[in-house]
Amino acid sequence: MLTEANGTAARGGGEGGATRAWESTPPRPDVAEVGGVAGGSRMFSRDLSWLEFNRRVLQLAMDESQPLLERVKFVSIFSNNLDEFIMKRVGWLRQRLRSGEGPTALEPWPVAAVFDAVRESIRQLQELQTRCFEGQIRPALAGAGIELLGYSELSAEDRRRVDVWFAREVFPVLTPLAVDPGHRFPFISNLSENVGVLVTDSDHAEPMFARVKVPGMSRQWVRIPDQADGAASTSGRGRFVHLAEVIRHNLDDLFPGMRIVEAAYFRVYRNAEVQTEDDDDTDNLLELVEAQLKKRRFAEAVRLEVSKGMSWRMLGPMMEELELTPLDVQERTGTLDYTDLNEIVDLDRPELKNGSWRPVVPRRLQDKGEDIFSVIRRGDLLVHHPYESFADSAQRFIAEAARDPAVLAIKQTIYRTSRDSPFISSLIRAAESGKQVACLVELRARFDEQSNVRFAQMLENAGVHVAYGVVGLKTHCKAALVVRRETDDHGRPMLRSYAHLGTGNYHPKTAQQYTDVSLFTADPTLTDDVVDLFNFLTGRSRKQEFRSLLVAPMTMRRRFVELIDREREFASEHRKGNRAVGGRIVCKMNAFADTDVMEALYAASEAGVEVVLLVRGFCCLRPGVAGMSKNIRVVSVVGRFLEHSRIFHFGGGHADPLEGDWYVASADWMYRNLSNRVESAYPVRSRENRAVLSHVIEVMLRDHRRAWDLDPDGTYLLRTPAPDAAPGTPECDGTFETLMRETRAGDDPTAKAAANAAT
User: Do domains 145-350 and 363-419+442-447+472-548 have the same CATH topology?
Assistant: First the structure.
């Protein structure tokens, strides 16, 4: 058996009180050496905190109250998340380790200790995933008429039918690649599924290695034909066997006349943190990105996963060719790639899934006879996705602008979008009709580079002015600007600007799955800033200050720290008896790792400011520590939708929670967002819109179904509903069901927030 050396011992964890094993994360393997209590660290390791977030995702797969295929979906999501983490962060840690780098301000621990702890955490999580799937989910699927079988579990007749299908549909596509003096070791592509084979042509000859790649374009879960002619049902029930299993048991057809000595599965991870020349020095960013894509495909291997029992005769040569050590290899039971389970999730079994959610058209946009610009002129419009429709708001905004003869110019940023993006189509239509159209396409959006290169070329070919971003910075802000020729109150011609500012991408598919906030405005104090922002993005500008927007890397961090310090001063004055109200900070984001903001919050906490942070993903801040962060709470809500919106509230010395400063933003509190990206945060000024944001936060903080509290030692504890929790409340139903129900019923969040403020 392959064993993995590990320099960091994992602490054991037990069940506490009435909490079941999966409802509380066990103490992390970093406590003793990496950002733990023993060392008095002021922060948690970003990497280990991120892995704890993925543990919370895995808990959703383990939760038996979830519909069965939803549990399968979260098994797949967990694997996809972990794949990205290994490619990005494990690759980066290996680079730091090999270069001999020491601790930094952002990573103040020995690199080797972090790397050991990361490997151990990954091992624990993957074992938990396997036990969950094999012990709970697979049997439950069989009970529901969806059998996921091994080839050896099939009857002789079923095998014959599968083999006939294999010979017809798969065999011609396969390319076995042998390794011998005449054949070099084959290139193993990133994340591909492979069957490794040792074959020999006699009982005494030394076995030779060969690799068979499992075709990625085919369905991975093969439905077993249930008729003699090989036809398979298309119902939501059936029996399935994995394609890799079928290939492994038909290797005799690929190696005729040879003896199969051994066959095993393996999978390689390659480094996504490829090193190329700095874009500050490049003459052509498009060519640089294309070179990065090519280099990433052939990047160094950082991890090898193999099926249980692989012999050293097969493993040793692979490790040598891939330049990996035993610490980079993980032996696994069960399947190596659970993302294939998306094919099972897609089966037509609505009773095994959450009920479908159809976003509601925002109330102010329900009159289809009124153009969207007239609606926006009456006052800023805030839309909460996916509860309210992205298609009927953000997509409509750009589509109407493209058709409207009064529109002179459209400008938009694209960070990620869908393959068949309606935004690209609308911008092309606008350019072809003679409008001035500019689009900032961020070519360096991780794992979307190839798509964005294609979009940029399509737009350029249609006459759109395409910019690739600011040299040295990624453009991550989500903004669109429409300039329209109108008349003023006296009938005189004028130009009016309209803006859309969002927390999420212009991506119709993820807009159905992520919670985000859109603000539509014609307020000149905002739109004039958006005009300047686009001039900065597409032209040459040294602008450092904006009227209303907070823009990274120029003003955002500084202003957020100023607002935190202001709340600290209010709290200090309140403690002295000079103010009736102290400081209050409530913020919602995806991730938190910026040390400047962290230290400002620690100082505010010690002054008496009550700080509540809703951080869905990793959080490096340590809450609840006496003498440092005793007044800071951190809550993570993970469930049906991906919490993606960023909302920031600073009380400003007001008792009324709808007063003070409210912002929504494209940026998390991370060094990269505040220092190395163009980001924007924009104020929300109307009381009605602030009430919507306040209500969202209130619901999340009352959640006792999908909310986790972060303890000072890095442990997350899942809240559970009280026995007397009333159905129809966040305490019983959680955030997502509550907000869906309220949106469907047309409840007015403004009235709710006003009532709450009064009490």
Answer: no
Beta carbons of 474 and 442 less than 8 angstroms apart: yes
Distance of CA 471 to the CA centre of its chain: 25
Evaluate the CA torsion angle 94, 95, 101, 102 in order and state its sign: negative
CA distance 539 to 606: 44
Please state, in angstroms and rounded to a whole number, the distance separating the CA atoms of residues 133 and 744: 34
Tokens at 568, concatenated: 């600290």
φ, ψ (nearest 5 deg) of residue 517 = -125, 135
How far is Cα 754 from Cα 756, in angstroms, rounded to an integer?
5
Helix or strand or coil: residue 409?
Answer: strand
Separation between Cα atoms, residue 611 and residue 337, nearest integer Å: 40
d(CA 475, CA 467): 11
The whole-angstrom separation of Cα 204 and Cα 301 is 33
Instruction: Say which of 249, 385, 476, 500 is annotated catalytic.
Output: 476
* Interatomic CA distance for residues 362 and 66, integer angstroms: 29
3-state helix, strand, coil in the chain (%, to 5): 40, 20, 40
Look at the domain 21-141 and name its fold: Methane Monooxygenase Hydroxylase; Chain G, domain 1 (1.20.58)
* Segment-wise mean pLDDT, segments of 10 residues, the chain, 759 residues: 27 31 41 45 93 97 96 97 95 89 85 94 96 97 97 95 94 91 86 95 83 91 75 79 96 93 96 64 67 79 95 94 94 92 96 95 94 97 97 98 98 93 97 96 83 91 92 93 93 95 96 97 97 91 88 97 98 91 96 97 97 97 96 97 97 95 98 96 97 97 97 95 93 96 75 46
Global confidence as pTM: 0.90
* Domain boundaries defined on the chain: 21-141, 145-350, 363-419+442-447+472-548, 551-758
Locate 285 and state its tokens: 């960013």
For the record, the structure tokens of 680 come out as 């924007």
Q: Are 465 and 439 in contact (CB under 8 A)?
A: yes
Q: Which helix (H) or strand (E) holds 610?
A: strand 610-615
* pLDDT per position as a tens digit, 572-629: 999 999 888 999 999 999 999 999 999 999 999 999 999 999 999 999 999 999 999 9
No. of helices (H) and no. of strands (E), the chain: 23, 27
Write the DSSP assignment of 685-729 as a string of letters: --HHHHHHHHHHHHHHHH-SSSEEEEPTTS-EEE----TTPPTTS
Task: Spell out the residues 6+ positions from residue 346 whose beta carbon is closer than 8 angstroms to its own.
Answer: none
Homologous superfamily of the 145-350 domain (CATH): Polyphosphate kinase middle domain (3.30.1840.10)
Q: In whole angstroms, give the CA distance from residue 629 to residue 608.
A: 10
Q: Name the class of domain 363-419+442-447+472-548.
A: alpha beta
Alpha-carbon torsion (148, 153, 159, 163), positive or negative = positive
Task: Name the amino acid, one letter, at 573.
Answer: E
Residue whose pair of structure tokens reads 């009016």 in the numeric block? 496
The fold for domain 551-758 equals Endonuclease; Chain A (3.30.870)
- Contact between residue 579 and residue 570 where contact means Cβ atoms under 8 Å apart: yes
Q: Is 644 known to be catalytic?
A: no
Q: Which are the contacts of 616, defined by CB distance < 8 A and separation ≥ 6?
A: 53, 589, 590, 591, 636, 637, 638, 642, 643, 644
Angle at 485 between CA 479 and CA 487, to 5 degrees: 125
361 DSSP 8-state letter: P
